[in-house]
Design brief:
heterodimer, A: about 400 residues, alpha+beta, five-stranded mixed beta sheet, B: about 110 residues, 5 helices
């Protein structure tokens, strides 16, 4: 048997999971770009260093983002990936595509690029991997013709993303799909023309299960929630009781605030202690439903650990009704971005800026009141410091 | 090292066409380069104002200014900036001003 040219990468094909190496090898049979990519990656593993140069500035007319320049630092060995730019394509809300849309995307990419895609990147965009500078504008023109647009990159508003929401899920407290689409259309300038100190991400989950992990991954997190009591269907509770589910052990005892009681016949919920974690609803979906008055909690500041450490978003607005045309949330986003752009240092995320200048400064700039829900982590003290003049008033 | 020939002179540039040596820049370079960044005809006074602003800022601080600062200091908005430099301030304006490639997050 012939010796493999990519022994290190072959290791990544072992095991029961799909492998990106297998996919690149398949593409390499017909694409010289994919073939050079495969061998450059093998060399990167061998040398223990990435063989892409740092950065690259390429683009299409009128847009400052959406294309990421990539150049090989070994074009002598791998001439077909000398330039291997990435194009980000704005995905539809909730990633709902018709198959013909996916086919047209693939056809365009076979024509202009390596044919390799990453469906999807962590921001949410459809990622088209590897093309040359002279193909960028024509590829963009073909994408536009087919109804696609580019996503955000660089110090811009990144393509907003959301969970499948009411499209597939009965727990949706807000129409995440519609809101995501509205925000995308409303903030076109901010997506395509980088103007911020650094990246800004908006993610929308329609219920507290937070399926797009907006709390950990977005500067501006929208998480569906409800006011009032969890709705209970007693007949269905009884049905669960006579099934394999142990309501006491699996539902009540694992409730983080212990706000439920089960006496063997009736389930009681002390809603004032509920933190809407969704645990009970997830376990008893036929018996329990979110309350009737629905909206979303707005949180800010989440980010991954680049430059400074990771942050989880924290509450800014405990409850906001979200209905078209969504003026209130759009206005809030604008005011936040304006304050951040005015005060942020280069490469300072919103959460880092709020930490640096203080929550009270941020709240004063936005003209929002400090509320008890603004805590660093659940069940800790609020950390908003009062202004001296406010304390003076209290003394009087 | 890639090179580019503009108005009879040869310049060393990086793979994206950014000038390697800030001091090799001259106005003929910017004018001759403009058409590759989708600017038709002669550079206007508004173009030159921005180009010189970028160069001064870069010489002073060693980095390109943030976009908001560019707009504020020059009394223009993003729309105007993209009208002047259709390929964007980072790619178009900085390249014509002879700045080294702005670094940024993808």
């Amino acid at each position: 048997m012939a010796k493999s040219e990519t022994p290190l990468l072959d290791e990544l094909e072992k095991g029961k999971w799909p492998s990106f190496v297998t996919e690149i090898k398949k593409a390499a049979e017909k694409s010289p770009m994919a073939n050079d990519l495969l061998h450059q990656l093998e060399l990167s593993y061998k040398d223990r260093i990435g063989h892409w140069k740092h950065g690259g500035i390429v683009g299409v007319k009128g847009y400052g983002s959406g294309v990421i320049g990539r150049y090989s630092d070994r074009p002598d060995l791998f001439p077909n990936v000398q330039a291997f730019h990435t194009i980000r394509v704005n995905h539809p809300s909730g990633w709902f595509y018709k198959t013909d849309a996916l086919r047209s995307l693939c056809d365009i990419w076979d024509k202009h690029g390596s044919g390799l895609t990453n469906m999807h990147g962590s921001t949410g965009d459809a990622i088209l991997l590897g093309t040359t500078t002279d193909h960028l504008q024509t590829c963009f023109d073909d994408l536009s013709e087919a109804g696609f647009d580019l996503g955000g990159s660089g110090s811009a508003l990144r393509t907003p993303s959301c969970c499948v929401g009411p499209g597939r899920c009965e727990w949706a407290c807000v129409d995440s799909l519609d809101l995501c689409h509205h925000l995308t259309m409303n903030f076109q300038d901010e997506i395509h023309r980088p103007m911020f100190p650094y990246k800004f991400k908006i993610k929308i989950s329609a219920c507290p299960n937070d399926c797009v992990a907006s709390i950990a991954r977005a500067d501006f997190s929208v998480i569906g929630t409800w006011k009032g009591d969890i709705r209970i269907d007693p007949a269905e509770v009884e049905a669960y009781a006579s099934s394999d589910l142990n309501i006491q052990r699996e539902v009540c005892d694992l409730c983080p605030t212990r706000c439920m009681e089960w006496d063997g016949r009736q389930l009681k919920i002390f809603n004032e202690d509920c933190t809407r974690c969704m645990h009970c609803i997830n376990l008893m979906p036929k018996a329990l439903r979110p309350g009737e008055e629905q909206g979303a909690t707005i949180l800010v500041g989440g980010k991954a650990p680049i430059v400074e450490g990771a942050l989880l978003s924290w509450v800014l607005v405990p409850f906001m009704k979200l209905e078209p045309p969504y003026e209130e949330i759009k206005d809030l986003i604008l005011r936040i971005q304006d304050w951040w752009s005015e005060n942020g240092r280069s490469r300072e995320r919103l959460g880092e800026l709020i930490k640096r200048l203080g929550m009270r400064t941020f709240l004063r700039a936005l003209d929002l009141p400090a509320t008890p829900q603004m805590v660093k982590a659940p069940r800790t003290n609020p950390y908003v410091f009062f202004w001296p003049e406010d304390i003076q008033q209290e003394v009087k | 090292m890639p090179t580019i020939e503009l108005a009879g002179k040869t310049y060393e540039v990086d793979e994206d066409g950014f000038l390697e040596d800030l001091d090799k820049w001259n106005e003929e370079f910017a004018q001759a380069y403009a058409s590759t960044e989708d600017i038709q005809g002669t550079l206007t006074e508004e173009h030159w104002k921005l180009i010189h602003y970028l160069r001064n800022y870069f010489q002073q601080f060693g980095i390109a200014p943030m976009i908001r600062k560019v707009c504020k200091d020059n009394g223009i908005d993003m729309k105007k900036l993209y009208e002047l430099f259709p390929t964007g301030p980072a790619k178009g304006a900085c390249k014509l001003a002879g700045l080294s490639k702005p670094t940024g997050c993808v």
